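Reopening: structure tokens for the calcium ion complex, inputs below.
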Amino acid sequence: MTIEPYETSDDTPIHRPMGRTLNDIWQGRLTRRTFLKGSASTAALTTAGIALPLSLAACSDQNQHFSFIEIEHGVDETHHVAPDHEADILIRWGDPVTANAPTFDPDNQSAAAQAQQFGYNNDFIGFIPLPFGSPLKDHALLCVNHEFTNDDLMHPVFAGVADPRTVYSREIAEISMAAHGGSIVEITRDKNGRWTPVANSPFNRRITASTTQMNISGPAAGHPRLQTSQDRSGTKVVGTFNNCAGGITPWGTYLMAEENIHGYFMGTLEDHSEARNFARMGIPGQFYPWGLYDARFNINKEPNEANRFGWIVEVDPLDPTSTPIKRTALGRFKHEGCETALCPLGRIVIYSGDDQRFEYLYRFVSDNVVSPDNREANFGLLDHGTLSVAKLREDGTGTWLPLIYGNGPLTAENGFESQADVLIETRRAADLLGATPLDRPEDVQPNLQTSKVYVSLTNNSLRTDAQTDGANPRGPNFWGQIVEISPEAENHAARNFTWDMLVVCGDPAEPAVNASWNSTTSENGWFACPDNLAVDPSGRLWAATDQGKAWPKTSGTADGIWALETQGELRGKGSMFFRVPVGAEMCGPRFSDDGETLFVAVQHPAADGAEAFPGFERKSTYADPATRWPDFKPDMPPRPSVMAIRRTKGGPVGG
Ligand code: FEO
Ligand code: CA
Ligand code: CA
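Re-run output (same inputs, fresh job):
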């Protein structure tokens, strides 16, 4: 994807019972039932941990295949879902979130209103049943990231303007900052299975780039390289932005990944104290001119501010007054997401991709175990642990290389004086360890039922034929692939793993593409550019795509969601389930705990590749967008929205 001013992009340039049983116990069962209970539950855990392997093994065979009728590749002004399913709009950009939020009025937007309304470009979706600790009934919290803004499609002031820079203003910048971050929204389900937001719920909250005070914790907190004129302590920062994917911890906190943070800074690296570090991160990326209005986004006025972004933010959604915390132990890079698993001992394991061409795959393992009976005892878990980076060898084996100050090349000789330095410059530390450069690692999704881990490598147009290897078999690679990792002994904390290719994406009918799919995959079942992944409660894998402006070339279809078989004779078979409107990207897929709802995030409708949309064939503008989804009203711009998909007659989504 190319970068344009005021527009962001993801990249510029056969089960053994033990592992899955423990994970199932910890993550799927005990978490909900015991976190808010007393020591009696701890005893139950111990008993269950011993007793359950056999019983769970008996019911664990994951040979449930998909039975829905797939939809066709295509592109038009609206969304499409598989027959016998319904997709409802749940919440749209601008809809009220906090109590007394104003009704959305595109002609009278303000930063103050936006900070109370649903933000732009919904991406990650987390789902937490209420009350926390109980099985899902009909209340839950949705935790939704708002990754970036398409300002020129949001504001009437850009209508008919050839160069958006000529009318960009402080007000636009402040609305943009307020439209970034996240939303926490209570939702409730009626007897027909339809979810709706709960107006004025005390849980409802907006987190933004400009209004939310955050703390910084872990090994880099307080380090001089994190200190600024506004925060001499290096432990407090306002806001988060470019929150792409994320995760929900077993103790019910919401993890927001900070991804393309480079795009929010302007200035020059000449004679800059952080020149080497910033250059490795692409800072200043200058997507947004926020630095014209707030000096902290100008690296020459505030040289350390950019070191305070690129982290994982942990939020307690059950306490709307809680202060979000940037957890530096998980490293600083362009975090795509941060999905969690548990090792057999109960330590939390977090996987995170660094989404840029030739970047790496990371894993964090906590030092301490998750406490199932004392929720608050887990609030410091992400401050102590080991961050590692992946090496994937040609022979299908792999190793996690720990990023520990003083080990190997991570010493003063190479500019690392402490663990804080290693974490602030995670990418450079990983370079020195010899990690494997991958084709843009996007979402990394552990399947807690099988202990397999799925890694979306979305594409890499810069890889040459000479640079190909086992996990990155094509150069250039316009279509991406999904790698399946098997941790040794089904232990997510193990040092070694094996890996295999699940699918090599692109059109299997085009020999030059060299795609690899199960031979039963239909002409609609293949896709390109996998991004977000989800596993449903039956252990089945689903993949969302983000082709960006390249969709006319990579597949010719709009982005969407495909079901993907991972086991047995059908392994590697895709089936198209959902399609977004023209110009949109598919984000977020997240299942309710009962598997009867699939929440999806439709990002930036009308934006990408409208020039190739048959019958439209021009760039979308505020006055003339390729679609006005989902409202289709002449005075309403296209609005990124979260949708809730269910089967018309009930039961698990996907059949
Ligand atoms: Fe924000 Fe890497 O997708
Ligand atoms: Ca993504
Ligand atoms: Ca993406």
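The two ends are 35 Å apart (CA to CA). Confidence is low (pLDDT under 50) at residues 1-10, 12-61. Marking as resolved unless the reporter disagrees.
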